[in-house]
């Protein structure tokens, strides 16, 4: 019986707001709201198709045994300011897991605007780049860049150096802001 009474009281209390009388609001009922929207600065780096290199990049040795392994990639950079800096975060280290002491020699990384000379990227030194001008005001600029990576194979004969090698290229892209 207690549960039945308790349930009825709960149901009645839930209906109370529906029984309340309507009230008339007097005074100011309209307000003007003003907002200023500031466009965020973008610096978006992708492959040339708008994605990324999900399976990595594969280096190839196109010359003889003593020539460097190489790979090139086309990057797309979308930037609000049009200016950015690129630096290597850490040295490129290409090695095999089977023999960690066996590493590629003299790795070199360079980046350049499409149709321009590539600039070498090294740890601790940033290189500045400038996108082409944006086509319209208040539109981000878009530029295409060629990334090149090369390294010489490890010292030794084919039998002692054969294997699958991997490495991580860590680049930092930083927007540059013009002084006001």
From TrEMBL:
Sorted UniProt keywords: Signal
Protein name: Fimbrial assembly protein
Segment forming the signal sequence: 1-22
């Amino acid at each position: 019986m207690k549960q039945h009474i308790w349930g009825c009281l709960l149901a009645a209390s839930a209906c109370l707001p529906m029984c309340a009388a309507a009230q008339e609001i007097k005074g100011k009922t309209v307000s003007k709201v003003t907002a200023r929207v500031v466009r965020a600065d973008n610096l978006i780096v992708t492959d040339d198709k708008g994605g990324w290199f999900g399976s990595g990049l594969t280096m190839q040795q196109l010359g003889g045994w003593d020539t460097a392994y190489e790979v090139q990639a086309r990057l797309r950079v979308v930037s609000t300011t049009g200016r950015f800096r690129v630096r290597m975060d850490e040295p490129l280290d290409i090695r095999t897991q089977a023999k960690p002491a066996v590493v590629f020699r003299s790795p070199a990384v360079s980046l350049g605007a499409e149709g321009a000379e590539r600039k070498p990227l090294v740890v601790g030194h940033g290189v500045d780049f400038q996108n082409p001008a944006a086509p319209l005001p208040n539109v981000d600029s878009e530029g295409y860049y060629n990334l090149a990576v090369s390294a010489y194979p490890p010292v030794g004969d084919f039998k002692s150096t054969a294997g699958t090698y991997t490495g991580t290229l860590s680049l930092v892209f930083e927007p540059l802001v013009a002084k006001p």
